[in-house]
């Protein structure tokens, strides 16, 4: 982590520990995931125990604690999406990618994850990849989506 | 007229009145109505999560279900704890909780201490849960040597998390993930044994379902299978109350006792897991007599006859002052009282002392000089009221873990903490200001702080004027220590010193805590005086949250001092010189009291006066490992005509004895210990001593009969009655009172409630006295042959010379071997790798142990502990004594490091 960036983030908050979320994002951007070392270092930096950092990092779905694929496919499985067929979308993705939700494809291209609410019920069932939202998604849309992602 | 802050309500149709702010749960408890709870932690604010404390509340015509743990009482409430609707709701909640709990813990199976099991039984849930979910079982985490973590039993009540974080301040346990994936973790999901867990076992005490439990069978045994005996921890001076669980005459586990006034149920690794020494196969069971080159077992008659004859012969040949008695800070008040009485009234000498000489002798001499009473001024409980905290030379979280809990709570609420300590210990990491001084420069720094406080006018003029004397002389000396001078002596930044002084002087009340880093120096006495100067200067005495508080190293150091196991004072610090005092003792004892002060332990065992003492009766003290310069100690011990050692084990010292007497442990006798807060507490017999071992007080009585002046007591309570007659500060203390309360001395009469805070209105000597104190360097400083400063101390998992802690399997596994802490820079320069064997050499000898590379130990300093006989730190230490307190300089000597191959 660049010290300058860290300082700039820290300066935004009255209490050091409040900077935890943005610093977790920063760690993830740099290493691709939140490494165990980063958890220890952030704790030391912010006056938190490693446990307290890990509690936050695991609570939020947007942090990953293991290395994963180059792109992450997040499938919302909250209420609206589930009612409108999110499970079939997950099944189709698992089938096409050859991995279970939570796993990474052997070529390292994708990590597939179920996700808590993505705040887009109006286009449920919804998938998020990076900054982009896709929805409503039907199982039959998956092949085209994967094609786009592979080429994009 | 009823107080407006009192609320009246009915619970199960019984009217009651409770203070405003009381919860329904506590109101019901005061009527002995037990509302079920699972997630509730008594000492912490409610976080109603489990919902099993639902009760029906009717008020103003409306009827609701409420969580009893979090609902405050209001006027006119009608509470029904067993209303059908409430019971149904609770039953449903329990069934949901049981969905995550194994069926083998249901009523027909063995439930042990499982609270969920007990509640299921109470609510007639016998067949498990309709909601039991299929999930892959969690593997049982067996990685910790003492604690088993079985998450299959966990119901996520968060009690362990709160115990670990909010009570103990460790924050090692937490809950990862969320929703139905939530799971208890240690660190970032490490096996418990590899995590930063410090093994206090607070989680075990709070876990309701055995998901976190001590290893071994005790947890699963039916409630009632154990008898719980409430007593006091035998390790450090915090005085933690605990319950020994006994089954078939054996202590099987240690339980928290939440009524403990010093610890409120909290314990550290030693208190909770360090009890196995009680039943160690190494315990002495018979008296032993040296014959030829080995010991043979003997009867009590034979052994005691031999001791009595030997002592009599020495007295006849060389006079009574050729005999020494070493009492014990591990023994009870009653036993220490009898030991000094044996020395004075039976043998006729004041040569009685104990190991306070090695730890807090300067506290005694200096605080007596400054205030007229040699003890800590305040209590752990009132530390919570402090607005600033100064900790000097105390690695509190390791040495006195329970005293560290209120400190950590202070820090958590933002109170500034100033730590003066050469090493970057845990408290230093939490500190607002850490003065990482060179070992042995505390006094200069404290004088520097006084200088800043005077110069910046931060002192309490009213207090100084009304309650102190000697200000001018102190001021004159302090003027010679401007921050730049003090800081350059100590090797720190003068600005930090200024900041520390300002924080301490401007936030009131401010409390001082200190231990061996202050006292174990040739300037120990002077340094304690310097601390007293600061407290007097800022008026930080006589009120809650203030004061000057030495933390006592052993369970009963305070008591052993109180009982007069000191060569220069009668029990209760009464003067040997005062004819009236002596006369009072003589009239009760029926024997003359010798007037001439005796020798201190360090003089008895030092080379300088070798030969003065011909016979030594050493009780509960492993002097060979505990005294400085082991080679010298061994030579003195070997030169004695008679060495009698009374102990639990054949210690390194006992091996040198002519007669060894087997003593009972704390678990095998009744008595009292006095903790570091001056709190007198009962210890209670839980099990029988092994073989023919006897309590120290019984052995002393038996010996006194053979010496012609029998001391006869049927029970330690009778000894306390005699103490109360002769010792004014213990005047109101008796066993019947101690049955239900603890009492902090001074407690002068039977109606006196004890004194949690000293010197509210006056000092025992009248005015508090300032002392001008000058810094002097340690006796031995580094040079080109011995370029390092060696400093010694304790570690969390071991205790003193290891006689108890190393015979307690769990503790031994946590810290099994000696080590030498070296700063990474020094390690690099010398080529010493982590784990590599290294020799530490001083002018007195050498030891070999593994290197531990530790950034918290400053460059130029090496640290080791004194627990391990295979690398005894005291083979290295300097026996130079403080001229007033006669304490050795354990904390500083010059050393060199020699990395070895392998």
| Sequence of secondary-structure elements of chain A | HHHHEHHEEEH
Q: Uncertain spans of chain A, ≥5 residues at pLDDT below 50?
A: none
Mean pLDDT of chain B: 92
CATH topology-level fold name of the largest domain in chain A: Glutaredoxin
Calculate Rg of chain A over CA atoms: 17 Å
What is the CATH class of the largest domain in chain B? Alpha Beta
Q: What is the CATH superfamily classification of the largest domain in chain A?
A: Glutaredoxin
Estimated helix fraction of chain B = 25-40%
Overall CATH architecture of the largest domain in chain A: 3-Layer(aba) Sandwich
For the record, the count of structural domains of chain B works out to 5
Q: Count of DSSP helices of chain A?
A: 7
Shape of chain A: elongated
Q: Name the biggest interface.
A: A-B, 16 and 17 residues
Main structural class of chain B: alpha/beta
**Order of neighbouring strands in the sheet with most strands of chain B:** 14-13-27-26-25-15-16
Distance between the termini of chain A: 29 Å
Oligomer: heterodimer
End-to-end separation of chain B: 81 Å
Notes on the protein architecture:
The complex is a heterodimer of chains A (152) and B (902). By secondary structure, chain A is of the alpha+beta class. Chain A has 2 domains: 3-59, Arc Repressor Mutant, subunit A; 71-151, Glutaredoxin (3-Layer(aba) Sandwich). Chain A is 45% helix and 12% strand. A 4-stranded mixed sheet of chain A has the order 2-1-3-4, covered by helices on one side. In chain A, strand 3 and strand 4 (132-134) form a beta hairpin. The longest helix of chain A is centred in the N-terminal third of the chain and has 12 residues, at 20-31. Chain A is elongated, with a radius of gyration of 17 Å. The mean pLDDT of chain A is 93. With 902 residues, chain B is of the alpha/beta class. Chain B is built from 31 helices and 39 strands. The longest helix of chain B has 19 residues, at 300-318. Chain B is globular and about 85 Å long.
